[in-house]
């Protein structure tokens, strides 16, 4: 019979013994922020630390140079921790991924201390590009999560919370191609790609009134022409659509796509639509795992707000959660009111509160993994889930059973 009190002590002591290295890891990620698929130093820091601790580390998995998998233990129950470490362009770790990544590493180190006793395998999955194309989706597709019975991470935030869902999201790159001509001498000979983009954005703006509550459409124009006195022959933009579920996302995108098609039809420009990265599914947090996590967090003197029925922004952890029992709680620290994705939030990423969040998040996650392993009911449930997944075959090649996303090209006037 497992000594629960001794196991708890071993896990918490393991986090304490690694605390200086974990805080240094968080600070190092923060000091050298790297954006999606460029996280070479970040991935190296994490891989090197885990190798020091005796983990077997595989780098560049799934043909992603900045992804990694580190394992320790040999039990049939595989507990997965997802480490994020990409930053945002221009504003660094404004989403707190330095805290997320360091906490996940700490959880893996701590749970590894009892892995043999609990007959489990600890699997740290380094997941790049959460802020862009969705590294977790690519890793799912590559089979990296196939043996994972439970997946978890914490996310930096101004407060502690559990249970929230997230919005499904899809992103598309839009290109209009027209025909250049002199803007003053012969504008009628041109096909204005900027006009096509303007019409499309106007149509999207009008569409918003007809969209369901919780749905959002937003984007930026990345190219509007090359010279003031030349009819723009090419314009580019990126558009994101968010919805409550991945199914609703597909429905809304059809209406948004029609707005871009309207720009092509009205101007005669050629339209090209290409998916940018993978669709992110809505997050489904496992209530049993959440209950174990809340107890562990309470033992650290922290109280998490329950946010069941609420939605966060969007995360590729949603795709993981549609297949594998998952938790994605937030771990909080004082940011003086600053919200994620702002330079002000970035400034608090190395604060004493953020450092405590790294260590408390690591401890709570590791204790959650240990709690799942010591409960015969939970262990059986999780292992049965792995066996069912491994017997089943995917219905289609889209994320979470949704239809596959394909590039679309429309000829002028189509």
TrEMBL record:
Residues 387-414 are annotated as: Disordered. Residues 171-263 form the Peptidase M20 dimerisation domain. SUPFAM superfamilies: Bacterial exopeptidase dimerisation domain, Zn-dependent exopeptidases. Signal peptide: none annotated. It holds the Pfam family Peptidase_M20. Belongs to the peptidase M20A family. This is Peptidase M20 domain-containing protein 2.
